[in-house]
Amino acid sequence: MSSAIETCELTVEFHSDVKALQKLDLRVAQGEVYGFIGPNGAGKTTTMHVLLGFIAATSGSASIFGVDVRKSIARQRIGYMPEHPQTYAFLTGRELLIMAGRLFGMGGKFLSDRAEELIEKVGLSEAKNRRIAGYSRGMMQRIALAQALINDPDLVILDEPTSGFDPIGRIEIREIISELKRAGKTVFFSSHELSEVEKVCDRVGIIARGRLVAEGGISALVKGGESLEQYFIRTLS
Amino acid sequence: MIKSIVIAQQVWRETLRRKDLYVLFILLLAFFITLMTLNVFGLKSLVGHIKEIGLLLVWIFCWFLTIGISTRQLPHEEKSGTIFSLLAKPVGRAELIIGKWLGACSMAGLATLVFYVVLGGIVLARGGTFSLRLALEAFLLQCCFIGVLAALGLLLSTRMNGDAAATLTAILSVAAFLILPQVPQWSANVVGRQREIMLAIYYALPHLELFDLRQRLVYDWEPLRIEPLGMILAYGLLVAAMFLVIAWLAYRNKKFSRDII
């Protein structure tokens, strides 16, 4: 069985002198919840952007379920929510989900039902027919999450998924991630909320200056009553 | 292709929900109403002037609309950050460009059709006539012009911001429309290498004046025969396809980083 995500010596250079990623080797198994953590500017978002084909790697390779990320078909089984979700302000929440589904080749009643189901799941039933331009930041985050899940993806990539949420919203996101895990989906997410990461992840990878500096299961990394946050600070210092 | 159509539908929705399209319609309608009420010395030949001014307005508004829609698409996606959600789907960059082009062309084409119908109504109301076949030919060629213009706008917007792309598209299209047809005349006055260069430029640049049948409509000339009409349409499609291919080449490896938000 191929890995959900696999990178081999992935290197990304910007303007020939800034090395965003340096020979990054990453392997995320199918059905795993993987927390990708690191300080600001470590290369988390760049890694995600390479996986999604926004940025071409300078060298090395990356694949999703065994398909080269440079092929658009590699994104057929992915759901993605960006760090600062921006969606089409002129659409309603429901229209956005229908559009997203159609880009995955979905349609008809199946898509319509799926959109309704997700709108309910993210708590936007009352706002579904309102233009996104009138949504609050939290609502925007919710609709972005719903559109990331529209195709029932096997791999969900979430960039700072809890950053715009209030405490209740964070619990809901955690619930959704746990639900995805129970359904056998792979979740790859970055976060600065290490307590959240600790609660939901099977494994974590710590990236700093474009290199993976530590990786493993939470229980293997964190020992002797130490929290993930303490381990993170100790590792980076 | 289905993904391109979905993207084109986004362009329609965006254009219809923006206010500028309606402002343009109202403005054109105001001009048309003014034309309709025009009655200088009760001259019968006034219908010809109404046709001429009306068609000129239709062309100007169509030009304005096509440039506006086509050049803002890609820069707006990048600036607002929606490009990330869009390209995270299994959508190739070629599909994205074709979708945006289809959306811009169809929207501007539809608006132009409405302009033609309104103008036709005014001409008929003022006792004028025109050949339906010729009007259809003129509309068809204008749609071809829209296709070329939208492709040029998209091409320039792959590497520029929306305003810069719109300005450059406007300058280039006006130059191609007004200046390029004069080149053979000018080249007759020069010799040697200079003349060859001028003629090379003349043949290499797109000839937008070919898509303009206004004079025929105004003076009720014969409709075009099928052969030249087909050749002009094929020429327009070829030029538009060429611009789209260059746009794809310029866009396919473009890096998107969060800095663009």
Task: Write up this protein.
The complex is a heterodimer of chains A (237) and B (261). Chain A has 237 residues and is α/β, with parallel strands linked by helices. Chain A has a single domain (5-226), classed as P-loop containing nucleotide triphosphate hydrolases (Rossmann fold). Chain A contains 8 helices and 10 strands. In chain A, helix 2 (93-103) packs across helix 3, helix 2 packs parallel to helix 4 (137-149) and helix 3 packs across helix 4. The radius of gyration of chain A is 18 Å and the shape is globular. Chain B contains 11 helices and no strands. Chain B has one domain (2-253). With 261 residues, chain B is mainly alpha-helical. Chain B has helices spanning 2-17, 20-37, 46-80, 82-87, 93-125, 132-157, 162-179, 183-187, 192-204, 214-218, 226-251. The interface between A and B is medium-sized, with 37 and 30 residues.
CATH superfamily heading of chain A:
P-loop containing nucleotide triphosphate hydrolases
The SS-based structural class of chain A is alpha/beta
Q: What profile does the largest beta sheet of chain B have?
A: none
The fraction of residues in strands of chain A falls at 25-35%
Number of domains of chain A: 1
- Overall average residue pLDDT of chain A: 87
The end-to-end distance of chain B, rounded to whole angstroms, is 29 Å
**SSE string of chain B, helices as H and strands as E:** HHHHHHHHHHH
Biggest β-sheet strands, sense, barrel of chain A: 6 strands, mixed
Low-confidence blocks of residues of chain B? none
